[in-house]
Write a structure and sequence with these properties.
By secondary structure, the protein is an alpha+beta fold. Helix content is about 45%, strand content about 20%. Helix 12 runs antiparallel to helix 15 and helix 14 (about 530-555) crosses helix 15.
């Protein structure tokens, strides 16, 4: 085959490969992605494609609402009016002209009444379908509202009882709740304030007057609000790092898990009929979460070069209609971009609808379709696991939950498997145990009469009389009699350096075993990103620093321990960790989350025990008092921190010097 023909085939192959994705998505100017439980971005199929752009004579529009009939309502802030576009887009009318000043939020109830939050007039207006003004609500006169507080409505929603929930600028007390007559009912869903460690200490030591001057800390005011068909309120706050999106029950308490993560900097939030949450941020990204707050996918982007359908310049609002189409309002472009869900998104939504009702088996076919399109979609694996679990196919459920990285559900499935296994084999275990016990008693009796096991005993004694074996076996003596053992270490040079070196190597081996063989439920390590070399450094660098710095500190503070004593003593002081780690790793493979106490307590006990042995070692080999040993330990730890800081500074300086020299060489080469 000649060269030209090879090039021709390669060109044809590349052209064909570009046509493999669906033609419907070929002009989509953005990618879509989600995040796994480890916080890593995973790219997915496109969930929504732009299908239409609705234009109007809008001037700086701030809010968008779509009613049950598909009519679109736009808070045309710059024009001081509410623009209404019917479902077909053929009829446009404006209401509120001459009444509204700066409308920034609106809501339409099932009867067609239009509620408007007017930031400029500091009022809430209610219009009927024809645009006739029915009611005007100004600042509440109730003393509970607060005389000094301002009423600057930005956004609002209305529940089934016609109670109005108003987001007011600077309302740090939360959402303002009014009844249908505009009377103040109270505040709702206040944000909390998280104090840093330094501020907590300052609050503890400062006087009341100092605290009042320095700590005028108030919770941030919510920025956006939404409501679902069940009258559950959702708030979104831009200026907080955690719990920025809240799902509030009737008591105003957040229904989401405490550590639930959402993306910040949202400019608007809405909820569809199935409880899925949609937000759009100021970077042009649209986020969809399920009703539990789990991220489904992210799509969209901000236009940086030119105007393309599907990209935004300055998004200000988001809404979803009955058909599941997403509408994004752009205040700078003065238009609305309409996104239609793809087959991929539709299958996810159908599966979610059934899944949220507990119909796991019925939802299975939809999740199978999703996994055919995207095998990495974790929620689909979780739903499949639920379906298998309900059908008592626990082995299949276990695999799906592991793929979904859902430890709680994995634990439930594993408990069922373990329970079934024990029920089937309990009799066998009892029989085997009893048989072994009987065999032991028979052999013991025969050996007592004939001593036929003496050759084995002699081999056993010879083996444990080998010096290296005897030294390694002393690890158990350090556990039972640490004071005597460290005394022998210092004055009789027992055990030796070779055995201690083996123990250090064993600690590294144990760490590798913990990483790769700890049970899924208890293992938080991402195995795909494990570096054995890095793990070795994590172990040996701190140990080396401890040994060297403790030797140097002890020489200054008149400690009697030699470098050899510290080297060997530290290895044997870690005996509890060495002895109990492997059994705990094995145990982690047969425990569930209900028995997590056993696993955690075991490792914590081993670590605390090792710390106690290190303390005893310092006392014995350096001949310190109890308080002198504590001072030695803290001084050693402080010295280790100083060494690390100095090493970091030297690294930064060397790196800058390297870059400087490299730039000079490059400049010389270029000029020459």
């Amino acid at each position: 085959m000649n060269k030209k023909r090879k090039q021709f085939i390669i060109v044809i192959f590349l052209l064909i490969s570009t046509l493999i994705p669906s033609f419907a998505f070929s002009d989509v100017p953005y990618s879509a992605w989600t995040m796994n439980p480890d916080g890593k971005i995973v790219f997915t199929q496109i969930p929504y494609v732009p299908v239409e752009v609705i234009y109007g004579n809008f001037n700086n529009p701030e809010d968008l609402f779509i009613d049950k009939e598909g009519n679109k309502y736009i808070a045309d802030t710059g024009n001081g009016a509410i623009s209404i576009i019917n479902k077909a887009g053929s009829e446009v009318k404006n209401i509120g002209k001459g009444i509204l000043n700066q409308p920034t939020g609106l809501f339409v109830n099932d009867e067609g009444y239009i509620y408007v939050a007017d930031y400029g007039n500091e009022a809430v207006y209610i219009f009927d379908k024809t645009g006739k003004l029915l009611k005007t609500f100004m600042k509440p006169i109730s003393p509970l509202f607060g005389k000094e507080l301002k009423f600057k409505p930005k956004k609002l929603v209305v529940d089934k009882r016609d109670n109005i929930y108003v987001i007011s600028e600077g309302s740090t007390n939360g959402v303002i709740q009014l009844n249908k007559d505009g009377e103040f009912l109270g505040y709702f869903g206040v944000n909390t304030t998280n104090l840093g460690f330094l501020k907590i200490l300052q609050r503890f030591f400062y006087t009341e007057s100092q605290i009042s001057q320095l700590f005028k800390i108030v919770p941030p005011s919510p920025d956006n609000i939404a409501i679902d068909d069940q009258s559950i309120i959702y708030t979104d706050t831009r200026d907080i790092k955690s719990q920025n999106i809240k799902k509030l029950n009737v008591a105003g308490l957040d229904m989401f898990e405490k550590d639930k993560k959402f993306f910040p900097n949202d400019v608007d939030i809405t909820v569809d009929d199935n409880g899925n949450i949609f937000t759009v941020d100021d970077n042009g990204f649209v986020y969809e979460y399920d009703n539990f707050g789990n991220l489904l996918f992210v799509f969209g982007n901000k236009s940086t070069t030119g105007l393309r359908v599907g990209l935004f310049k300055n998004p200000s609002s988001i809404a979803v209609d009955k058909e599941g189409r997403v509408y994004v309002l752009d205040k700078d472009l003065g238009n609305i971009t309409v996104f239609k869900p793809t087959e991929y998104a539709n299958e996810i939504h159908k599966g979610l609808y059934l899944y949220n009702q507990g119909l796991y088996v019925e939802s299975q076919k939809h999740w199978q379709n999703v996994l055919r399109m995207n095998s990495d979609f974790l929620l689909a694996h979780k739903a499949m696991g639920k379906a298998y679990y309900k059908q008592q196919e626990y082995e299949k459920a276990l695999l799906e939950f592991k793929l979904a990285k859902d430890k709680k559900e994995y634990s439930n499935a594993f408990w069922e498997i373990r329970q079934n296994y024990l029920m089937k084999n309990l009799g066998k275990f009892i029989a085997i145990f009893f048989s072994l016990w009987v065999l032991y008693r028979i052999l013991f009796f025969i050996n007592k009469k004939t001593n036929f096991l003496y050759p084995l005993k002699r081999v056993y004694i010879r083996f444990f009389n080998i010096k290296i074996v005897r030294d390694l076996n002393m690890i158990f003596k350090f556990l039972k009699h640490p004071i005597d053992s460290f005394y022998e270490l210092h004055w009789e040079n027992k055990p030796g350096i070779a055995a201690a070196t083996i123990l250090y190597i064993l600690i590294f081996v144990i760490q590798v075993i913990r990483i790769y063989y700890t049970g899924f439920i208890f293992n938080d390590v991402d195995l795909q990103n494990v570096s054995i070399f890095a793990e070795g450094l994590k172990i040996f660098i701190p140990l080396l620093l401890w040994i060297v710095m403790n030797y140097l500190v002890s020489n200054i503070t008149e400690g009697e321990g030699r470098f050899r004593d510290i080297y060997v003593g530290t290895a044997y002081a870690l005996s509890p960790y060495i002895v109990f780690s492997i059994p705990l790793v094995l145990l982690s493979n047969v425990l569930t989350l209900n028995e997590i106490f056993l696993y955690d307590f075991g490792f914590k006990l081993a670590i605390v025990w090792s710390i106690v042995l290190i303390y005893i070692m310092i006392v014995q080999i350096h001949d310190y008092s109890y308080f002198g040993a504590l001072a030695n330990i803290f001084t050693t730890l402080f010295s280790m921190v100083i060494v690390v800081l100095v090493a970091f500074v030297l690294y930064v300086v060397w790196n800058q010097l390297y870059v400087f020299i490299y730039d000079i060489i490059q400049e010389v080469v270029t000029r020459v």
